[in-house]
Design brief:
Structural class: alpha+beta
Oligomer: single chain
Helix content: 40-55%
Largest sheet: 4 strands, antiparallel
Radius of gyration: 29 Å
Distance between the termini: 66 Å
Number of strands: 10
Shape: elongated
Amino acid sequence: MKAICLPVLLLLFCSAIGQTKKPKNPQQPSQKEMQNMMKEMQQAMEGLSAEEKAQMEKIMKGVMTTSATTAAPMAVSFNDNKLLVGKRDLQRISRIPQKAFTDADFVSNALQLSTKLQAKMAPAQKAIVTKVLAQAKTADEINAAAITALLQGHSQTAMALALKAVQSSPKNPAYQGNLAATLSQSGYPDKAIPYLKKLAAEFPNNSTVLHNLGFAWLQLGETDTAQRLFGAAAIRNPNNPETKICQGVIHELQGDPQKALEAYKEAFELSPNGFTTDLMKNAGDENKWQTVDFEKLKSNITIHEYFSRKWIAVPKLADNVSSFNNDAAIQRGYEEMFEKLTATLDSLNEGSIQDFTQLADQDLKTFVGTMMAETQKGINVMSKAAAYIDMIMQIYIADWHSRFMQEHLELKMKIEEDRKQMTASKPGERCEAMDRKANAFMEHINPIIRKFHAEKIEELRVWLNAYCTWAPYVVGNPKNMVLNRCLNWTAMLARMYANAVADQVTIAPVCKYQAGDGSTFVPVPEIPSIHCKTPVKMPLGMKDIQLTAETINLNANQWGIAKASNTPMPNLTLSFGLNRGLIGEPGKFGRPFAKAGGGGLSFSGHNASDDELTPLTKIQDQLTPLDPMLLPEQKRERVQDMQAKKDAELSKKLLEQFTSKDCNTKPTYITKIGPVAFVEWDAKKGEWVEVPEPVSGENDPYILGVGFVEFVDNRSTGKQGEKTFDAVTGVSLIEIVDAPSANTSSRQMIQQQISNTLKSGLQAVISNGLGAASSVANTIRNLFD
């Protein structure tokens, strides 16, 4: 009976987390949801005796009572997507200034808004602002605190800090954009529009500016203007989930729920979350997310690379009878290695379930109560997204395994069929001819075998990395059961590698005897630290917020800004970057981002490796113009595009370096830099090439206008100037700088500039998301009038 309890508990909580219908009280399951979960439990317990079923139901009723009071991420309840759009507000629209703002106007207006806000904001919000400003020393820190406050549900605090950040650094476009986005997200889109118009004039092709301007007009009920701007934003950047969502709602307003559903599905594929599934449900199909293919989803979600392509190297045999002894020795060596690896995995597996086994020896009430307590403890701000991702992965792997078994069987049959046809001997045939047939057969079949296994291993490897990344975030790792599952799938991956070696055909020569009884030593590969919980980062400034499988909310922030009571996390997307002169565009050129929505968070593109785990780097930006007047010269790649590409690359690398996979060490922050490598873009090669040091007094041939600087930490070698990765932190950073021409002294200035930028850490840029009007706490209608 106890053997089925854990699957039942996990089923219940995955079901609860994955529910798309929100109860009236966001902190408690509805009665219907509780009944549905009890029904699922009963179905899962088919085969138990009546007495055992009664006992389990009694325990589970107590469990559901306990779970109803558990603090968990909140979500806003709504059942009509069209109500997320504001009614046309002519009064507020008429008050929007027609004059285009300058930087001076921006600061002046921000000061006016700040004064009005200070006069009316709640005392508790003022207290948070005062506390933050006592700690914050730079505009970067104030901006990071403003975003933290917004995510934690303190809209007045967020506006006050965003206004302060702009006043502290008046020419920073990212702070200006975040101020405008914060005003819109807090219920004041009319105050945001003048700022966004100013930014749109300076950055006419920036998708985030276009999207946020469209969002502000949408909140004021100007759907035609909003639709045009969302269309422009989508063409410039098809990877912003908020733009897809807003386009979907407009389709609904226009009476086309099918187009809306497709837009919502695309948004979900970019970043799975409960808010988007709610949109699908309200549009008439609450299960459309289940049609998402993992092959497509993996291009967007964050995946930590526990198992690299180099974990086990599959040997390429000689495919020749003359090498039979050597090939057979290689196969036998790998067979012995896999036996040792399997024994190690079995040992780890036994160790992983010791706690569970000991607990299973306790009485049923203790067993279920303990497991449920650990499961509840694991529910966090990423649980809902993780539950959706997990369910999509389970659908995929079931189909994948079925296809693999069939295709592997077909491969075996092909091997034997081709063997019969290509190696059949004739009476009296000489052994040399028979050897030639064997060689031709091996040259024909082994490449097919290697290709088949390489593809299947890669599919399972990526899936396993994704599974071990996301599984702990569903309900934590109760009694190491998630670890146990990862180990079981690791054993499956090892068997795939073993098949890839064993299936390759080796044939002994007929003319010359070769025993083939040798064995080549093959070292057992190290098993990755899948038992370590890899934290996902919310990088707001240099001191980012760590989100682990035990972190329920964002309270672990450097400002001590606690979550506002009875206030959900707003729906929005944050893109991350380093260059303070850019307004980040989520997903564009592979830029990493986080989506907040439906009471949780999901992360996309937080991978630094260049292989299949990071396919976002392969996304090509389509520069087809929607409206030549709105988006001029889009067919030509501009300097800002080159800047954005390199900044996105660096942002991913920095995020990866801030993520610790070592159980015994904490993430390290970059405080020192190595030498600077100056480069220019080589159009013929399609890559950046290094520019040598200029002769003293001469201008650098670095005339492109934009380049990047690579910082190399040389502590692993101690050799100054040698490009390498640090053995501990793996530092190898790239940053973009403005440098129309650079001599030796300006190189030094650039190095100092980038050093200061790195110390400030990653900055987040807000893309507005729907749901603001129904989720903002303490909105004062005439606050700024």
